[in-house]
Design goal:
- The complex is a heterodimer of chains A (273) and B (280).
- Chain A has 273 residues and is mostly helical.
- In chain A, 82% of the residues lie in helices and 0% in strands.
- In chain A, helix 3 packs antiparallel against helix 8 and helix 6 runs antiparallel to helix 8.
- The termini of chain A are far apart.
- In chain B, the strands form three sheets. Chain B has a six-stranded mixed beta sheet, with helices on both faces. In chain B, strands 2-1-4-5 form a four-stranded antiparallel beta sheet, covered by helices on one side.
- In chain B, 44% of the residues are buried.
- The chains are: A mainly alpha (273), B alpha/beta (280).
- Chains A and B meet through helix 4, helix 6, helix 7 and helix 8 of A and strand 6 of B.
Chain lengths: 273, 280
Amino acid sequence: MLEMLRYDFMRNAFAAAAVVAVVGGVVGYFLVLRGQTFAGHALAHVGFTGATGAVLAGIAPIWGLVLATVASGIGMGFMGEDLAQRDVAIGLVLALALGLGLLFLHFFTASATQATTLLFGNVLAVGMHTVWVLLALGSASLITLAIVSRPLLFASVHPELAEAKGVSLRLYSVLFLAIVALATAECAQIVGVLLVFALMVGPAAAAQRLTSSVATGVLFSALLALVEAWAGIALAYYSDWPSSFWITALSVAVYLLASLRRPSGGPLAASSK
Amino acid sequence: MNAVELRDLSLVLGGRVVLSDINLDIATGEFVGVLGPNGSGKTTLMRAILGLVPPRRGTVTVLGRPATRGNPAIGYMPQIRHLLPGIRLSGREFVTSAVNGHRLGLPSADRNARAEVGHVLQLVGARNLADRPLSELSGGERQRLLLAQALLGRPQLLLLDEPLISLDPHRQQEVVDLVKSLRADLGITVLFSAHDVNALLGAIDRVLYLGSGQAALGTVDEVITGPVLSRLYGSPIEVVRVQERIFVMSGSCCAEAEEHRHDIHAPSMNDPRQRHSGHA
């Protein structure tokens, strides 16, 4: 079992996956609670444009990804007053972002491998330097989230009352989407922009089915994401199938298992009082 | 000192004058039923008291001070149609989220927060509901939790916006009785908006009836009369009393009964769940 840890690329992969899974799990909990998963998905697509644009400009793709997602996260936060229209706006931005990304790739005449890596991730190609970058970005988003978590939670579960109590709904919407953008950029390093849902939404949604407490839910979400990411990498090592496939498969399987449990009245709920 | 004083108050919502030149005082400790047709300004008046809607003209004074946003002396239960069903948190977690919810930091989990949440849950008789997920509670049970949340921070003035909406008559009476006993125990002022005065009879001290930009404040017998309501509705209104119940008739149909559709009220920004609710 431990023989895979003899390789540098495997150690880097586990380290990077640990950082990203914890960040994705924690941020994802709030994303699911706020019903903004679609926004997270769209941010990832914008990240693709940013990454390919960065490659075209001769910069490391991760910085293009971070810049593009954070800028559009903040933009979305400021924009969104009419949410019925926002779905349409997000959908259009999403399509345009992928289209532009493709155009940039076309100019760059990049290999199909590069595009595939951006879209679907390749955690086994993560270097030591990237692990440190991920750790720094992840710490930044988790620390910011910790500072704003109380008003954010209040504004998420009871916006009308939060507003009356002096919480600026718009401020926290913007801040939160900026945090989501950073987390998305991180997750894209591991599972690629198309499969960010696997780490940001799957574990969080499963955790919210398993517990009705916020603290436990955040913990479960991070733990599930971590276990899924690590198990995915290990399975990829032994099976030689892509790690992103295994992570998404585990994410969906865990969510389905969590959904099978009756919301309450089941033995777990009765004994957890 | 009065709980609420309105002086020459005019309120505008979306370019439409909702209330104009209102002058009235609500004494501390009073239980006032706020009535009126759709769009008459019940919610807007509450939001002005909360400092969320700036007056076009005039002033709003709350407990001796100008209305300001985030006033901790006010407990507020917003009118809610779309909230809660999708949230998988327990009732206790939901109520706890509002403890000092405006301050930065991690969510409250210390002993003081737990004690305060336990206290307000006790006040509304919802201790046994608190550990179940919100998504499984009935409308009446959720209203209790919302009321508990409004009581956090020991407010002196309670603004309850349509707490009876979508409850059956029996549950309505339970909520009214609960608020009545809270008022008696805590000595707080209550503004309670509703569509039908009958549920509030026997509980309220006075009625604040809004309509056509105007307001009438007085006892039920003073305000719910044909002449006063005809002025507020801008059309002939007849008030009929049958046994202990009051029917407000417009022509041949019952004016109050038509108002059980929801008020259209500008929703707050960025509410993630709003997309699930159709606009009335």
